[in-house]
C-alpha cells in the first residue's frame, strides 16, 4: 500500500498519480472493493446485447456506452440517491467512473438530465423475461439449491399523495380551470362565468380541518362534481368552436381524456356508493390502481403488484402488473418459468393463497413437494412431510419476505419516483436485480477467500 499523502493549505503543488499511466493500480483497487465485486457479478455484454442499443451515426459520440448506460441504472439503485446527486458523485468518484466504463479526468458532466434520458430510452427496450434468462444463466453456478423455488407476491408502491375522492376531484378541477384560462387568453375571448374562486375557498377551509364529517365530505364531492362537469363542458364547447385556431399539445388531450373518465367514475360512485372497475386515483399516473393487500398496517397500496419467485435467495420477477390480480392462479406458470431458468424443480414453498386444488393436483402430478397443509388422511411418511413442510415455510417467511424489505429499504423501491409506467417497471427491475447482484458479489468474495486459503 502506498503512503497516504496529506494535503495542507500551505501545499503549493499537488502531484497525484495519473489514472491513465497507473490504470492497473486503480483497476486492481476497484476490483477488490464491494462495487468492483458487483461489477464482476453482472454479465454486461450479454445484457447490452439483449437491450439492442444501437449507436447513432449522427452527432458526437455519447458519454456512456451501452454497458455504461446499464451500469448507471445499477449504480442508481445501489446508491439510492437522486439523478443530480448521482452525477455529482460520478464526477468526483473514480470507482463510480470505472463501474460505468468512463474516465472524466478534470472534466465534469453538467447535464443532470442525462440519467433521465437514458432511463426513458432503456424503458422502451426492456424485456424482463429475456434479461432475466441472461442473469440466471450467469448466476446459476453460485446457487446451491436451484431445484427449490420460493414464491410470494409483493407491492412496490409509487411515490404519490394518498388519493381521496375530494383530492382527485379538486386536482381535476384545478387543472381544467387553468387550461380554460390559458385557452381563453390565447384566443382573446371572454372567460366564461363559473364558481371556481368560491369553491377554492370552500375546499381550502375543508382541507385545513383536522376532522371532517361525512356530511361535509359529501357536500364537497357534490359541489366539485357539478363544477368539474361545467368546466369540462366549457372546454369541449371552445374546442369545437375554435378547432381551426387551436393547436393543443398531445399531453392536453391525454389529461382531458383522463379527467373525463375520472368525472364519469366519480359520478357513478357518488350515485351508487360503490367502487368502479379500473378506478383512476391519479391524473398524472392514470395507470395506477388501488391494490387491496389486506395488511395490518396498509389495507390498500398504490403501485405495481409483482409475483416473485426465488432460488437460493435470488429473486426473479414472474409477473408484474399495475392492476390487482390473484397470485394464487399463477403457481403453474411460475413453475414452468422457473424450469426455463434453472431446470428441474423438486420443492416449492408458497403462501396459503397458492394452495388451491388445481395447484395441488399439478404439484402432485409433477412430483413436486410443497409446504401446503395436507388435505384428507395422513400418508405413510407424514412425519417426514411435516418436517419438510415446516422448513420450506420457514425459509419462505424469513428469507423471501426479508428480501422484499431489503429491496425496498436499501435499493430505491420504498417509494418509486418514476413518472411514467415504463420507467416505473424499469426502476423495479434494476432495484430487484441490484439487490441480487450484491448477494452474488458476496458469494464471489467468499469463494475467492476459500480459493486463497486452499
Task: Write a structural description.
- It is a single chain.
- By secondary structure, the chain is of the alpha/beta class.
- The protein has three domains: about 100 residues, no CATH class; about 200 residues, Nucleotidyltransferase, domain 5 (2-Layer Sandwich); about 110 residues, no CATH class.
- It contains 16 helices and six strands.
- Strands 1, 2, 3, 4, 5 and 6 form a six-stranded mixed β-sheet that branches.
- Strand 3 and strand 4 form a beta hairpin.
- Helix 4 crosses helix 7, helix 9 packs parallel to helix 11 and helix 11 packs antiparallel against helix 12.
- The radius of gyration is 28 Å and the shape is flat.
- The model has no long low-confidence stretch (mean pLDDT about 90).
SS class:
alpha/beta
- H/I helix tally: 16
* CATH architecture assignment name of the largest domain: 2-Layer Sandwich
Q: What share of the residues lie within helices?
A: 40-55%
Share in β-strands:
5-15%
CATH class of the largest domain: Alpha Beta
Question: Count the strands?
Answer: 6
Based on Cα principal axes, name the global outline: flat
Q: Enter the CATH topology name of the largest domain.
A: Nucleotidyltransferase, domain 5
Query: Termini separation (Å)?
Result: 25 Å
Number of domains as seen in the coordinates: 3
* Biggest sheet overview: 6 strands, mixed
Radius of gyration computed on alpha carbons: 28 Å
Amino acid at each position: 500500500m502506498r503512503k497516504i499523502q496529506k494535503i495542507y493549505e500551505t501545499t503549493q503543488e499537488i502531484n497525484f498519480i495519473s489514472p491513465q499511466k497507473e490504470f492497473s493500480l486503480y483497476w486492481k483497487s476497484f476490483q477488490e472493493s464491494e462495487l468492483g465485486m458487483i461489477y464482476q457479478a453482472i454479465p454486461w455484454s450479454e445484457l447490452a446485447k439483449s437491450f439492442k442499443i444501437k449507436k447513432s451515426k449522427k452527432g458526437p459520440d455519447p458519454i456512456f456506452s451501452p454497458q455504461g448506460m446499464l451500469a448507471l441504472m445499477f449504480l442508481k439503485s445501489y446508491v439510492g440517491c437522486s439523478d443530480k446527486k448521482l452525477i455529482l458523485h460520478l464526477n468526483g468518484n473514480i470507482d463510480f467512473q470505472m463501474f460505468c466504463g468512463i474516465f472524466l479526468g478534470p472534466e465534469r458532466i453538467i447535464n443532470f438530465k442525462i440519467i433521465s434520458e437514458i432511463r426513458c430510452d432503456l424503458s422502451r427496450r426492456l424485456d424482463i423475461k429475456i434479461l432475466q434468462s441472461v442473469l440466471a444463466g450467469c448466476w446459476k453456478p453460485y446457487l446451491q439449491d436451484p431445484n427449490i423455488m420460493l414464491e410470494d407476491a409483493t407491492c412496490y408502491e409509487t411515490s404519490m399523495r394518498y388519493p381521496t375522492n375530494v383530492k382527485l376531484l379538486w386536482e381535476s378541477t384545478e387543472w381544467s380551470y387553468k387550461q380554460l384560462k390559458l385557452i381563453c387568453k390565447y384566443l382573446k375571448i371572454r372567460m366564461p362565468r363559473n364558481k371556481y374562486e368560491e369553491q377554492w375557498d370552500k375546499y381550502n377551509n375543508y382541507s385545513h380541518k383536522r376532522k371532517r364529517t361525512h356530511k361535509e365530505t359529501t357536500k364537497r364531492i357534490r359541489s366539485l362534481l357539478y363544477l368539474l362537469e361545467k368546466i369540462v363542458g366549457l372546454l369541449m364547447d371552445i374546442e369545437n368552436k375554435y378547432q381551426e385556431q387551436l393547436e393543443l399539445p398531445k399531453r392536453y388531450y391525454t389529461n382531458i381524456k383522463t379527467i373525463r373518465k375520472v368525472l364519469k367514475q366519480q359520478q357513478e360512485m357518488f350515485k351508487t356508493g360503490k367502487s368502479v372497475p379500473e378506478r383512476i386515483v391519479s391524473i398524472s399516473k392514470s395507470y395506477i390502481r388501488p391494490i387491496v393487500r389486506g395488511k395490518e398496517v396498509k389495507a390498500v397500496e398504490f403501485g405495481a403488484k409483482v409475483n416473485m419467485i426465488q432460488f437460493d435467495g435470488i429473486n426473479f420477477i414472474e409477473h408484474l402488473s399495475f392492476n390487482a390480480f390473484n397470485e394464487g392462479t399463477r403457481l403453474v406458470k411460475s413453475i414452468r418459468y422457473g424450469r426455463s431458468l434453472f431446470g428441474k424443480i423438486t420443492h416449492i414453498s408458497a403462501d396459503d393463497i397458492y394452495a388451491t386444488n388445481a395447484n395441488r393436483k399439478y404439484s402432485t402430478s409433477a412430483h413436486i413437494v410443497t409446504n401446503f397443509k395436507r388435505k384428507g388422511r395422513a400418508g405413510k411418511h407424514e412425519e417426514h412431510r411435516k418436517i419438510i413442510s415446516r422448513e420450506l415455510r420457514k425459509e419462505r417467511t424469513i428469507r423471501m419476505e426479508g428480501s422484499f424489505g431489503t429491496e425496498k429499504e436499501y435499493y430505491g423501491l420504498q417509494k418509486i419516483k418514476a413518472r411514467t409506467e415504463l420507467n416505473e417497471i424499469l426502476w423495479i427491475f434494476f432495484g430487484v436485480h441490484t439487490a441480487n447482484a450484491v448477494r452474488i458479489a458476496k458469494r464471489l468474495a467468499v469463494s475467492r477467500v476459500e480459493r486463497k486459503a486452499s
